[in-house]
Amino acid sequence: MATNKTNKMNTGLVRFCFCNVLTPRQNDNGDDEYTCMILIPKSDKKTITQIRKMVDTLKKDYWGNKVPPKYKGPLRDGDEYVNEETGEQDPNRLGHYYMNVKSKFKPDVVDKYKEKIEDERGFYSGCYGLACVNFYVYDNKQNKGISAGLSSIMKIKDGDPLGGASSAEQDFKDVDLSEYEDDYDDLDDEY
Question: Which residue stretches, if any, does this entry annotate as coiled coil (predicted)?
Answer without folding.
Answer: none
